[in-house]
Amino acid sequence: MDIISYQKQNPTQWSVVVFITLCFWLSASLVLDFVIIPSLMEAGMMTQPGFASAGYSMFGIFNHLELLCAGIILSGVFVLTKNHVFAKKQQQWSIILSSLLLAVALICNYVLTPQMSGLGMDLNWFESARSMPAEMMELHAGYWGLELMKFVVGGILLVWSFRAWKPQENY
């Protein structure tokens, strides 16, 4: 007869994984949104004809990293919830919020980036000056809305994972 042994996962390790992954993801998003993109705009690279394909490559790589981070966070939250690290109400909300982070990453990767790159492609070589299409402004507004949602939801999960990771003091 085989004996089935159950080894309980160490929730502290998973809360560290969730915490570090959230720190990496949110800080990388801040650098991209507030350092790299403004630098490219200031240098005038966004008006260059080949920027749409370069931007698609750059955002494509970053979006795939976001998907990886969202998957790690969702997996970690499942483990933390299974081990009852969070309070009962936090267990439900942590799964909802981490799923929302995954949805944000999926929308950015499979909807916004291809649409924005498609609108930015320069298909008329004879037209010298192009203005930004109105649809692009709507997509930018959607992008910034998703980024704001990502930072709020990520911040909440960051606080919860830090509280789960923080060692308990013995009195």
Distance between the ends: 45 Å
Give a count of the beta strands, DSSP E runs of length 2 or more: 0
Q: Structural class of the helices, strands and pairings?
A: mainly alpha
> From the alpha-carbon coordinates, what is the Rg to the nearest angstrom?
20 Å
In terms of DSSP E residues, the strand content is under 5%
Give the overall average pLDDT.
Answer: 86
Write down the oligomeric state.
Answer: single chain
Order of helices and strands: HHHH
Q: Helical stretch count?
A: 4
Helix content: over 70%
| Number of structural domains | 1
Shape: elongated
Q: Catalogue the unreliable spans.
A: none
Largest sheet: number of strands, sense, barrel closure: none
List keywords for this structure.
elongated; 171 residues
Explain the overall architecture.
With 171 residues, the protein is mainly α. The chain has one domain. It is built from four helices and no strands. The chain has helices at residues 11-43, 51-82, 88-120, 134-165. It starts with 10 loop residues before the first helix and ends in a 6-residue tail after the last helix.
Please describe the topology of this protein.
Blueprint: H1 11-43, H2 51-82, H3 88-120, H4 134-165
Please summarize what this structure is.
By secondary structure, the protein is mainly alpha-helical. The chain has one domain (11-123, 131-165).
